[in-house]
Amino acid sequence: ADIRETDSRLERRIADESSADVSRREGLERERAELRSEIAAVEARLAELRAEEARCSSDVAACEVAIDAVRTKYASKARRLEVKRAALATARAELGASEGDIGAREAELDKMVCAHSALLGERSGWLD
Q1: How many Å apart are CA 71 and CA 33, to the nearest integer?
Q2: pTM, rounded to two decimals
Q3: Has residue 121 got a pLDDT over 80?
Q4: Distance of CA 2 to the CA centre of its chain
């Protein structure tokens, strides 16, 4: 009986001295359970978002394939258009050079006409 009584007192003393920690532990265990539940919900949502992102990536890749197919379909027309664009640029450059040349020749012709007019004026004075 003496051992049981000592054991009982010891257990009460342990319970008394650790009651604050026991209460705190119980609260922390509840908090941990709630956190684990929230983490599970967040991980589930993350898995959903990753699946949605993978679907979007797949759709983007499919769109890129479709766009490339259209570009391939019109590639030869685009090349022909680029050749025409280059030829037009060359023609414009040649036209600009020709216009400059024509302007220079017009100025030269004007000088010749003026010189010729002056010469005719001198010669008409000879006849007077």
Answers
A1: 57
A2: 0.49
A3: no
A4: 84
